[in-house]
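Table S2 (text version). Query chain:
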Amino acid sequence: MRVFGRSLPMLVLLLATAATATAANPASGKGGWKAGLAKVVITPERPMWMAGYASRTSPSEGTLHDLWAKALVLQDDQGSRSLLISLDLCGIDREFSIGVREEIAHRHGLPLDRIVLACSHTHTSPVVGSNLITMYPMDDEQRHRVASYTEILARTLVELAGEAMRNLIDVHLSHGQGKAGFAVNRRENDQNRADELRAELALKGPVDHDVPVLCLKTSDGTVKGVVFGYACHCTTLALNHFSGDYAGFAMIELEKAYPDAVALFVAGCGADQNPLPRRTVELAEKYGHELADAVKRTVKGHLRPVLGCLRSGYEEVDLAFAPIPDRAHWEAEAASDQFAVANRAKSFLERLDRGESLPETYPYPVQVWRLGGLTWIFLGGEVVVDYSLRIKRNLGPDTFVSSYCNDVMAYIPSLRVLQEGGYEGATAMIYYGQPGPWAEDVEDRIIAGLNRVLRASAGQE
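Corresponding structure-token output:
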């Protein structure tokens, strides 16, 4: 278990003395905020293998609209800063994330618990690093392009962070919550009958239709930035053209409505949620407009001011896998006619041949920002909706819950989903190259870790 916050590594501690001192005195903040925003296009310049679907058989064929990385720096009236970078990407792996965040910490003086890399999880984006790498039948040229793109992206994000810090201005910070209704629990409903079931009031399963909004305005009321979320897969589209899916269309719409602003999307706990119906550009645009309208209504309506100062915490929780199968199991799977199954097994056999053991646990990132009275939780992986519903039920309405943050290593099922099995509970681990499903204490471990980080960020430890 690696903990950041009150137990920072020495390098990060030296870089962040002022920020840590502020966290120890949360009552000192008077509510004055500065913010810096910046954005950069990250659409690949060459055809690349696209992320998210095992059914793809060829690289990208064009661009529907550009992919973006967008940075937001927040600074309280004591000078403590935090950085959020939103990414129009399906996912990033641990190695990439740690490398980028540590370089930002080193170059720009931010502690790791103040840096978040948040993926929208659009399935019309390029493969990055080793994320979901078991899934893709790439040739050597495509693997080289992924490696080159990943290296360039890492440098770009570090520079983007610096640009946002140079753009700091005084802002009024406020938050609110809207609603959007297109997310459907995909485990509980026939996606081909979504409209029919909705008309009959017959949709089943838990959903989270909240649209959390963080709004940044100047003293004259000009909107300079909006951060918003939604708990739903970005899987409206399956075409081989780069796009941000519905979230990308929503950001385009918001930046048209607020021409001086940068709009950032941060995905919620939508691992078991799909936009339904789906599979057309018209539907992606429709959902994007619906989401943007929810944000605009919230910005125009009652927003609550964010008063106080910035506090934060981070922990890597050891999540256990179920018992790992023996070598004979992997030898049998290596002969499978299913590409991803055989690919995973062969990679494990190579590790065993080198004398390495397969991992029994995984370091899972849990992060918290407290912006005055607003609690913002960032979870790694593809988190199912049970988590956001549970967390907000207990912490109340002044809580944002985001996932796909810092490391997208696997699906994160609740105990209910794990016991039910299926894709989110078990078989998706094949595509992520993990050695099996999580142990049954996965939800307990994450909630216990979150509670530790919440207490630490509140100055109770």
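Notes on Table S2: Confidence is low (pLDDT under 50) at residues 1-29. The first strand starts at residue 2 and ends at 4.
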